């Protein structure tokens, strides 16, 4: 019994291939334990979850502390422990067999589900490919029909354009013939000109001379028009420049007027400042004279007090603060002596 208790306490006891841990090494977190399983094939861990729950329930029903309770009869405790251990082992084996059968059933259902899923995926892929092929064929047919329609329309447009061009050429040909008939008079006139002016050999020379004169006239007209445009632009630029300069001159005149006013104000303020400075200097001179008089008075009083007290004159004339401190001490001493004299006079009466 002690050996069984020690083996359970140290964690070396096994029950049907399962290691029984002591309660000191078993960690609980409330009523739920966090288990990590594979997400891809969770059916493989269904039996393990059920077995763990059953084992936990059995462990709670027959805890080690209850089995190893203190009892007077060690033999009865050992027999009851072996009996409960045998029953627990039978229950666990029955549970394992049941969970194994349940696991096999779930595995078969899962395999069948995977096969159905694979067939469905293959059928879906075939249907998708068939749909894509039909769509591609339909798009190619529509594209070909559209191209043929566009080609027919373009050919018809070209035929209509050529028909219009032929009609236009016929019209122009007729018009040219009419103009040639009307221009017969001009041809006779140019022939007479050639006969009168020997510098022209043919009618083409007369026409070229006429074209040259027309081009020269057009060139001169263009040049004159450009010159007039340039002159107009120069005139506009000059007027704009004059206007801008007038504005600038007006602005400068305003600035000059403002500066003149500022100069006059500054001059007035400078005169006032000079008067004020003069007054300050005069007051400063008066104050300095008064300060010198006070310093001389303090020095005279200090010399007089030192001579009266028969003290040497150690303080320099420039150290007024020390002289004032000496005078204060002397006056304090005199006040004390005066009070002492008054007390003695009062006691003498």
From TrEMBL:
Q: Which GO terms describe its cellular component?
A: cytoskeleton
On whether Nucleus is a keyword of this UniProt record, the answer is no
What are the record keywords, sorted? Coiled coil
User: By its UniProt entry, which InterPro entries does this protein fall under?
Assistant: CFAP_domain-containing, DUF4200
Coiled-coil residues: 249-276
Identify the residues that the record assigns to the DUF4200 domain, covering every copy: 87-195
Q: Look up the signal peptide feature and give its range.
A: none
What name does UniProt use for this protein?
Coiled-coil domain-containing protein 42 like-2-like isoform X1
Organism classification:
Eukaryota, Metazoa, Ecdysozoa, Arthropoda, Hexapoda
